[in-house]
Amino acid sequence: MLQKHLPRPGSPELLYKRGEYSFGLDVVRAAAISLVLLSHLWRPVEFLGVAGVELFFALSGFLIGGIFIRGSEKGFGAGDLIAFWRRRWARTLPNYFLFLFVFWALLPPRDTDESTYFFSYMTFTQNLFWPISDFFSVSWSLAIEEWFYVIFPVVALFFIAAFRGPRPAILATILILIAGSFLTRVLNPTPHPNLQMRMVVGFRLDALALGVLGAWLVHWHSALVRMLSHRVIVCAAILLLPTLGLSLLHFGSSMPPVLVALLFTAIPLSALLIVLASLDCPAIGGVAGASIKGLSRWSYSLYLSHIPVLFSLYRLPGYSDFTDATKILVRFLGISLALLISFLLFTYFEQPALNALSRSRAKT
Q1: For the chain, percent of residues with pLDDT exceeding 70
Q2: Confidence (pTM)
Q3: Which of 140, 267, 322, 361 could form a disulfide with 326 if both were Cys (CB 3.0 to 4.6 A apart)?
């Protein structure tokens, strides 16, 4: 039976269950940020950005789900929950607030009261139940993640107490978030689902919940994970993910509400299958391996920094008169600059913040 399958010694799923490093997950993260960057280099491939962000969602849910599952088996109390949040926020908030002020300085809001903007972005309510504005619009996905990291563990801990065990409780939490997000989309159709649904917190919590489902399967049903990681299924998912993103951008406005709701379930599900398959990816060395690890480490800073860099270049005198080839070259130079900025931020800002947290935890 599937539930009696035991991972072989040294298998990727067993290493993941122990919380050990997986090179394949670095590959997914590097691929995700690469797709986002490509989508901003050339407008005809904008749909690749949809695929990239969904990979980020599935990966984030998968990683946080694994941390929570491993912790819940040892007994996950209020103190552990606070430590969980502290670790997550030490990773995300310093860069988030840094770039909030960078955007404020370089690309300030133009169409509403500044104090309203400041409060909504400080509290991650800029796209809670409504579309995000043009200001700091790249933060839409970060708001979805932050709300998920608050809601998921609280609901899961409630069910763990009710079920007296993590396995059914976490599954119940996952299914509730998936079903709730689906019903919310069905009952609240929008004329522009890409902007008014894909980028809104209230519609998208299932994107990360599906990632947690992947962690749940790896932990308790690893045989099923190996079946889902069959190369035919993975190849289909790799083709399906960008295709669904393209369908959303070009045909989403004309689709029936139920089909749109299903589309927003199918997209992160395709991303999850890719994440699960990545556990079998062998590590590689040399320049390629180092590049993948670098992109993975710098991906968060790169996600935030490339937009202000590119928009600053768009303001160059005569940019609108450049040829298409010249514009693409300028954008490539902008991405190169963003890579350098991201390396510096990770080395001298992100990593020191995490190290400071580790030192403070060691003292308590």
Answers
A1: 91
A2: 0.92
A3: 322
